[in-house]
Amino acid sequence: MQSITILGLETSCDETSVAVIRDGKLLSNIISSQIVHEQYGGVVPELASRAHQKLIVPVVNEALAKAEVKKEELTAIAVAAGPGLMGSLLVGVNFGKAFAYGLGIPFIAVNHMEAHIYSNFIDEPTPRFPFLNLTVSGGHTQLVLLKDEFQYEIVGETKDDAAGEAFDKVAKMLRLGYPGGPQIDKFAKQGSTNAIKFPRPYAIGNDFNFSFSGIKTAVLYYLRDNKLRDTVIQEQLLADICASFQSSVVDVLVQKTIRAAKHFGVKDIAIAGGVSANSYLRNEMRKAADQSGLQLFIPKFEYCTDNGAMIAEVGYRKCQRSMFSPLNVTAIANLEL
Ligand SMILES: Nc1ncnc2c1ncn2[C@@H]1O[C@H](COP(=O)(O)OP(=O)(O)OP(=O)(O)O)[C@@H](O)[C@H]1O
Ligand SMILES: [Mg+2]
After folding, report:
1. Is 90 exceeded by the pLDDT of residue 203?
2. Which residues line ligand 1 at a C-beta cut-off of 6 Å?
C-alpha cells in the first residue's frame, strides 16, 4: 500500500494548530493558543483571525520540521472548514487550498465537530462501530451515534447553552477568568458536590437533549441571594460552588449518555471536545460505563480542546477513501455534521 502523509490545519477559533500524520501515526501536533483574548474575557473574532494570519506559516513550518517531513512528501492537506468563526476559518481554509494547489496535491475539507469525535482515533485502542459519542465543547453539546465510518446521527443536542459555554459563563460570574472550564475543574477538587443543590434537568421530555441555562441561572440566583456578586468569595465556599455546579452538569451528561447507549444498544461509548478534559466528567463517566458494562474511550488531554491532530486524523481516513474536496469549497461558519 502507498504511504500517506497528511498535514492537518485547525484555525476554527483561537487555536492555530497544525499536525502531521503518516500512515496513521501522529508525527507532530503543534498548538499555538492565542493569549490575546484573556484580557477581554472571551474570544474576540477580529483579533483571532489576525493572529491566525501571523501564526499559520510559522506553525506549519514547525509541524513539518518536528515531523521531519518535507512539504513535497505530503499526500494531501486537511483543513477544518467549519463550524467556527468565519474570519478564523478563512485563514486555514484559504492557506490550505493554496498550499494544496501549489503542491499539486488534494485538499480535504473537514468538519470540526467530526474531528472532535475522531480525536478518539488518534491513539490505539479505538472505539468499534457502532458507538455513541458525547461531544462537549465550547460551542456544542451533542450525542452522536456513529453507525459506521463517517455515518453520523445526532440523537441529542443542547437546547440552549453548550456545556463549555455554561462552564465559561459560571466562571465569569465567579470571576475566575477565561476560559473558565479548567479553573472550575481546579477549584472543584477542594469542594463538596453536595454543598449546594443546583438543578439537574434530566428530562426535557424523554429524549436525549440537554439544557444548561437553568443550572447557570441557579448559580446566578445563588450568588445574588447570598450577596456574593462582585465580592471576593471565601475559598472553601468558592470550591463548594464550583464542585456543586460541576456535578450538576456532569451528572446530566453521564446519565443521558448511559441511557442513550442502552437505548441504541451500543457496546462502546466515547467523549470528546474541550469539556472532556474535565477530571470529574472523566471519572464519573468511567464509573458509570464500568457499572453498565460499556467500554469508554477518552482522548488524551491535548486532543480534547482544538488541535490539528484530530483534523489530520480525519484527513488521513478520508484520503484512504479518496474523499477529496474541490477547491471551490469554502468555510461555513455554521457547518452541520
Ligand atoms: N477541564 C475542563 N473542565 C471543563 N471545561 C473545560 C475544561 N477544559 C476546557 N474546557 C472548556 O472547553 C471549551 C473549549 O473546548 P473546545 O476547544 O473544544 O471548544 P470550541 O472549539 O471553542 O467549540 P466548538 O468545538 O464547539 O466549536 C471551553 O468552554 C472550556 O472552558
Ligand atoms: Mg472545538
Report:
1. no
2. 13, 83-84, 112, 116, 137-140, 164, 167-168, 179-182, 185, 273-275, 277-278, 305-306
